[in-house]
Amino acid sequence: IRSSTGTSVEIMNVGATILKLNTKDRTGELGDIVLGHQDEMRYLQDTNYFGGIVGRVANRIKDGRMVVGGKEYELDCNNGANHLHGGTVGFDKRVWNCRRIRNGLEFSLLSRDDEEGYPGDCQVTARYTLVGDVLTLEMRARSMSATPVNLAQHSYFNLAGHASGNVLGHDVQLFADKYTPMEQQIPTGEVRGVEGSAFDLREPSCLGKKIEQLAREKGLCPAPIGFDDNFVVRNRKQSLLERILSLGREQMHPVAKVVERKTGRTMLVESNAPGVQFYTANFLCGVRGKEGSVYLQHGGLCLETQHFPNSIN
């Protein structure tokens, strides 16, 4: 898909995955700002979820267990003791149907009853459109049976270019006053304010400095770790005119703003989801990527808009 401004996005039907996202820097030079594999077949074995749509439920479900309609279900545990991003063969590993639409592509997928342990058939659509420099993803799901659905887009962004190294120099702002603390990567149930902590990203902040602060607070100095945490997106109040013009559609809220100063590239993320998983590629370790590149720790960042992890429980 290419827009009138020169911005373009390349998407494949395996996982409805974003393969490339080319945008201009301040000099007008185009650069690909998403991480990914050179060989498209590698996406079928990928455990980093580069660029795909993850589901039926994104993020973790504790012990791979949930109760729906009074019945307990056991899901595929593909992340230690937990279920992650829909299981071993989640939506990111499935081949979706695809059709062209105005300014974009629409992908569709039928997830059958008992796939990865989930109850009920579930019909999913993902519509990507590109107008100017605005890339929009609209995801919908329909099921005739009670079943949890929590879809997320899992691209890794590096605004300096996918092969440029780490993102520690990026400035990150999250429109979130609270986050959900975790134990063993599962939320404890507490919703905690970010003020006075490394999780306070309400103002533009150098990512590298915030990761250093996070390491100090967790007693992990000098080794940096990184973020892999769910933040509670701040609700923005709509004016009366905005409510009228929205025609009943769910309200979009600012989620994050990312700036890379050298290239001048800026990315603004908006969503109607209540949470965002901010992940700083803590576990990339020599992954071979596009054009002979090698992706290392903190080589990109993910902003996975979502419902809260393990919220089914």
From TrEMBL:
Family annotation (InterPro entries): Aldose_1-epimerase, Aldose_1/G6P_1-epimerase, Gal_mutarotase_sf_dom, Galactose_mutarotase-like, GH-type_carb-bd
Pathway per the UniProt entry: Carbohydrate metabolism; hexose metabolism
One example GO MF annotation: carbohydrate binding
CDD domains: galactose_mutarotase_like (cd09019)
Active site: 154, 304
SUPFAM superfamilies listed in its UniProt record: Galactose mutarotase-like (SSF74650)
One Pfam family here: Aldose_epim
UniProt keyword list: Carbohydrate metabolism, Isomerase
Residues noted as binding beta-D-galactose in the record, renumbered to the chain: 59-60, 154-156, 228
Keyword Nucleotidyltransferase annotated: no
An example Gene Ontology biological process: glucose metabolic process
PANTHER family: ALDOSE-1-EPIMERASE (PTHR10091), GALACTOSE MUTAROTASE (PTHR10091:SF0)
Family: Belongs to the aldose epimerase family.
Descriptive protein name: Aldose 1-epimerase
Species annotation: Guillardia theta (strain CCMP2712) (Cryptophyte)
